[in-house]
């Protein structure tokens, strides 16, 4: 863009989690292909972020481009109230077929945060005629579920970016994040707090809300799948619904199609988003089982009281169908497993640096946790100079790789992380 627009952007356009009076540097992307971002000065950066975890197929993907082009020549948007269209029905059918267990009913939403809002409303409305005291949720410390108010109310109230809004949010119950790590032997004590809180407060709690196995923006933390099995069992015992937020973990990210599959459990409600369209359009969905569906549809209201303007947008649902077809037509399991092997090969040795507290890898996710918070602007500049795009936050330097990432790209990403560690930029 020209210098006038660049200056206008700097002075008037809010970017995520940054200030307009003291803005963080931004870098202009003019095009993208495969897993490269092309800057306005011609430099190509290896993308390690999948554009906030959404572009699992990389960029400028022919199959997805063709799907959008074909659909835009038919209808780009039409209201979903009183109208149906093929791409929404086709996508819903695909989601039902892919989802674990009996999650047979699909509600489309605009974004991940809104899908969480829909899931919370489903749980509250399910109990509204049955147990009127069930108006609260139980969530995990270290969890993150989005930036809207309902989603913020089940996001860690102390350690998250949303603590400033604490006094304005609905008050819910929280327990410590599971202490037993993904790759450790299961410790039964890890579920004691969960059982105790549900035992004491289940008459107030409509649902447990969690990110299965991998907590994303709350700390890139991996916990033991057995905890999920305990949650499922306790929720069933205490008549509490289970909401699994698979927005970040869905569609192969952890090495399973959905992270719930690590524990072999089925939630009552599951949210999906991010990678659902391959990063082309904003879209999400909340899936539920028949029990929840009937509880809502046969209740006093008779309908779920939610209806976004762009619900089941034809462009978004069409490209989502193409993205899932592309995912399932390839050997995504082998691909993600290979990415994990290479991430371990190149990233685990970084644990030897004194300024690193821990390195962990699962699926296409690699995390370097530093001993102190990083300077995002300094690291971002260093990474760009090294030819990679990595967006750190807090004490985390992490990658969530597009599935098209080559071995040499993983090595280059790891070398860039090693560069900032070796030069004490963290």
Tell me the overall shape. Answer: globular
Uncertain regions spanning at least 5 consecutive residues: none
User: Within the largest sheet, what's the order of strands?
Assistant: 4-12-11-10-7-5-6
Summing up helix and strand content along with how strands pair, one would put the structural category as alpha/beta
Describe the sheet with the most strands: 7 strands, mixed
Strand content: 15-25%
Tally of individual helices: 13
Number of domains: 2
Using only C-alpha atoms, the radius of gyration works out to 21 Å
Number of β-strand runs: 16
Q: Give the mean pLDDT.
A: 97
CATH topology of the largest domain: Aspartate Aminotransferase, domain 2
* Element-level helix/strand string: HEEEHHHEHEHEHEEEHEEEHHHEEHEEH
CATH class of the largest domain: Alpha Beta
At the fourth level of CATH, the homologous superfamily of the largest domain is: Type I PLP-dependent aspartate aminotransferase-like (Major domain)
Residues in helices, as a percent range: 25-40%
Under the CATH scheme, the architecture of the largest domain is 3-Layer(aba) Sandwich
Distance between the termini: 32 Å
